[in-house]
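The record is given unchanged here:
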Amino acid sequence: MTAARLLTVNLGVERTGAWTSNGRSGIDKRPVPGPVMALSTGLEGDLIVNTKAHGGTDKAVYAFAREDAAFWERELDRTVPPGNFGENFSTVGIDITHAEIGERWSIGGAVFEVIRPRKPCRVFAGFWDVPDLVARFTANGAPGAYLRVLTEGEVSPGDPVEVVKRPGHGITVNLMLRALSTEPELLPRMLEAPEMIPKIQDRARRYLTAQEQRLRVRKRHHRVSAGKEQGQA
């Protein structure tokens, strides 16, 4: 079994084109020799253009497994080098898809927390020139994960990835992606993860409230229908 480690550490370079959100994009990440400082808001030297959608404490670092990259190389019949998913960390030997929300990794001098899946966007599809990539990427269910930086420190290619905490609630990156995209009935399960982002917890509660309201309406409709039937008997 391959030991879990960083294969590459990747930083963004500027790309321009019609597919970008505002004429510029930092989705194209390129491997660097390191060491690189991991700060609470991201990797030092990384280019983040759209700060509303990327970067910040809840999307500080994006990790994607090379094992999952292999699927896309077969699917598209082309090489997809490290960084081409827009990821900062290209990993080997660790199952990111089934990592739990709140799982903690020690890498180099830093500690990271798995916090959410990556949801693909049209910029990603444009960068790859695959128009239906958003739907295909979501359906594949292996989106990689955004990480929080809990302890700032330097990281380098080749650093081991050590799982130092696994919460045990079973809310994985894959499950969260499905809840936020194709299977909203899974949203209530997001409340089982104490580390869940508050706005996702709020979304889960709104879903539960809406479901309860629909149930009350159905029950009321059933009582009215039953009463009419009795009156006609």
